[in-house]
Amino acid sequence: MKNITLTINGIKTTVPEDYSVLKAAEELGFNIPRLCFLKGINETSSCRLCVVDVKNIRGLKNSCTLQVQEGMEVETDTPEIRDSVVQNLQLLASNHVFECWACEREHNCELLDLMRRYSVENIYGESPNFNKKERLINNSSSAIVLDSGKCILCGRCVTACEIQSGLSILDFNDRGNETYVGPALFHNMEDSGCIYCGKCIQACPVAAIKEKSEIDQVLEVLRDPSKKVIVSAAPSIRVALGEEFGSKIGEDVEGKMYTSFKKVGFDEIMDTNFSADLTILEEGTEFINRVKNNGVLPLFTSCSPGWINYIEQYEPEFLANLSTAKSPQQMAGAVSKHYYAEKLGYKKEDVVFVSIMPCIAKKHEARRPEMEFEGIRDVDYVLTTREYARLLKRKGIDFMKLEDSEPHGDLAKYTGAAVIFGATGGVMEAALRTVSEVLEGKDTPIDFTEVRGLEGIKEATYNVAGIDVNVAVVHGGASIKEFFALMKKTKKQYHFVEFMACTGGCINGGGQPIHPAKIQDSVDIRAERANTLYEMDKNKPLRKSHNNPVITKIYQEWIGEPGSHIAHELLHTNYGKRNYYKD
Fold first, then answer.
1. The pLDDT of residue 549
2. What dihedral do alpha carbons 230, 235, 239, 245 form, nearest 10°?
3. Is 578 within a domain?
4. Nearest Cα to 115, choosing from 142, 140, 86?
5. Cβ-proximal residues to 527 (8 Å cutoff; 6+ apart), any chain
6. How many domains does the chain have?
7. Which residues neighbour 198 within 8 Å (Cβ) at sequence distance 6 or greater?
8. How far apart are the first and last CA of the chain?
9. Contact 269, 409 (CB under 8 A)
10. 513 and which of 243, 410, 449, 486 could share a cystine (Cβ 3.0–4.6 Å)?
């Protein structure tokens, strides 16, 4: 590719010809303001905050969409530029509802950061003569809230939904000062076809789209002496939670996480990694039974609730392919209340189960009517990684200064196979470790590296017990849509397919820490978090789920064997076709 030489703020630089002025300037260390631009998602220039002055070109130009040219001379910080930025920020602020002290994005709001940087006052919005737009709040779903009062109409959520989920649930509605973002034709989120992957939340620079918070409910039960509160954290939480407190991206903070649970006042810890091992035994056995008994193939994994929402609404004819195994979250709640509680001397009716999850779809999953047994809900409350971080901050806990610790309970013990559940391909690899060994009747490989990586669709073939097993790993709504189109066209026979609604898997779930657009542009956050999970797996003494001694003990004492009657009552479920509004 041809290189271009240009001058930015008096500094000569050479960059590839496909660079924008914004990218060239930022590589030199110049911090150009922006709100609407998000690399690979929303490469537009609607906010007009990234303006620069180019010699011999009339007027200020948007640097995010301005291509570099040979000999170009650019200024990024002149009085005219600053005046323009301030004026546009004032206009954005005029229609923004400022509740910063109680806002979910108080610590990482891109609009607030820019207003502080440029000392912007809300001169229009505070005027009694200003016609402020009506505030619309869509909180009808169990997982997600849309607040037009916070929205700056940057469009990042709209294009994230289109590009990453492939569903285009969100759009601009109405016109002029009445414009708002939401599902078409005033529909609520629950019948919009949304799968609650949360890509819109991660793209939003403010708090116009957010998860439905359950922090207050969790704090309330923690204060209730009649309740025994059990907490469980998903695999990916331990490589993301620290980022809310200034750790490097992907840092392993598992020990501090365990200590924080004790500081908060949870009575018991049950690591979701443990129930991930349990999931492999149940789902792996289901796969083996289908192979041996000519059952419906391919078997589709069932641990991603966003994916479950997808298949129920968009590919219901394939529901028979879906594993009946509950997700690790739901298994954790069921085991805690119907097995662990009695061992600890608790009445299961008094047990409250709280899960810390990377995913807002987990909130919707926990509220499903089928996720209970004998009138006892599997999971009572779900906090995202971000919510749990806010809870810690509200309690004044300095997370990164906590000492590392380990939980004392058996149900927090897990294998390396469990921890990689947090990355795309991890469920498949964990299942292959167990399934291959059971079918072969001997030790088999631990690492199945072909299913790792961040490609949207990955395929591999493994010979297991004389059978060529075709597997696929698919992550992200857009890739799921593409995979089904290919599968129907090619008629290829797959045996086992892992689906995740979020690109990268749980490490990039809709409830994970949100970084400013500039960091999202420059760092592969998914890869950093995934690498840490695989390193944790590598260092575990046991790396196959069926070798977890506590899992073996539970089957001996309670369940009997994978796929038993009690297993099906508590650890399995079924899903059905769901309709959504179609215009």
1. 96
2. -20
3. no
4. 86
5. 454
6. 3
7. 144, 211, 306, 359, 360, 361, 502, 509, 510, 511
8. 45
9. yes
10. 243
Q: Which pLDDT belongs to residue 109? A: 95
Place of tokens 């919009």: 192
On whether both 220 and 193 belong to a single domain, the answer is no
- Given a contact cutoff of 8 angstroms between Cβ atoms, the answer to whether 502 and 198 are in contact is yes
413 in a domain, yes or no?
Answer: yes
CA 453 vs CA 237, 526, 530: distances in Å:
19, 10, 9
Other Cβ atoms within 10 Å of 439 Cβ, number: 19
Name 524's Cβ contacts closer than 8 Å, sequence gap at least 6.
Answer: 454
For residue 576, tell me if it sits in a domain: no
Q: Cα dist. 344→122, 347, 411, 544 in Å? A: 56, 9, 12, 27
Task: Render the burial of 527-563: b for 16+ CB within 10 Å, e for the rest.
Answer: bbbbebbbebbeeeebbbbbbbeebeebbeebbeebb
Q: Of 77, 109, 140, which residue sits at a domain end? A: 77
The region, left, alpha or beta by phi > 0 then psi within -120 to 50, assigned to residue 71 is left
Q: Is residue 479 packed enough to be buried (19+ CB in 10 Å), middle (13-18) or exposed (0-12)?
A: buried
Sheet with 137-138: strands ordered across: 137-138, 144-147, 209-211
Distance from the Cα of residue 192 to its chain's centroid: 20
Q: Which of 543, 536, 470, 474 is nearest to 505 (CA)?
A: 474
Cα 155 to Cα 206: distance, rounded to the nearest angstrom: 12
Q: Give residue 582's pLDDT.
A: 65
Q: Letter for the amino acid at 9?
A: N
Residue from 196, 200, 189, 192 nearest 159 by CA: 200
Q: Which amino acid is at 145?
A: V
Contact 364, 315 (CB under 8 A): no
Among residues 219, 215, 230, the alpha carbon closest in space to that of 407 is found at 230
Query: What's the CA gap between 495 and 497, in Å, rounded?
Result: 7
Residue 49 within a domain: yes
Q: Which domain holds residue 449?
A: 216-571
Nearest alpha carbon to residue 115 among 176, 123, 393 = 123
**Position 330: which residue type?**
Q
Q: Which structure tokens are listed for 294?
A: 């000519």
- pLDDT means per 10 residues, the chain with 583 residues, are 94 96 95 93 90 95 95 97 96 91 92 95 74 86 94 95 94 88 83 95 96 97 97 98 97 98 96 97 96 95 97 97 98 96 93 97 97 96 98 97 92 95 97 94 93 96 94 97 97 96 96 92 93 97 96 95 95 94 65
Q: What is the CATH number of the domain that holds 117?
A: 3.30.70.20
| Residues that are catalytic | 283, 286, 303, 323, 362, 365, 370, 506
Lookup result for tokens 């709100």: 35
Cβ burial, residue 138 (10 Å; 0-12/13-18/19+): buried
